[in-house]
Amino acid sequence: MATIKIKQVKSAIKRPADQKATLKALGFRKLNQVVEHEATPQILGMVKKVQHMLVVVQ
Known about the structure:
The protein is globular, with a radius of gyration of 10 Å. It is built from 2 helices and 3 strands; from the N terminus they run βαβαβ. Helix content is 33%, strand content 26%. The protein has one domain (3-57): CATH 3.30.1390.20. It is an alpha+beta fold.
């Protein structure tokens, strides 16, 4: 299966608790961190939920 690299570019400060939990579940701990995941429907749904704070990197 394909992999996807995502980078957090905006802070989770003053965001709803469910969005903070989604970032934590994706493995983000700090700003500008890049994580790599399999491109499963579950991961893609989590990325879509917080897409305003993320960027997909190649």
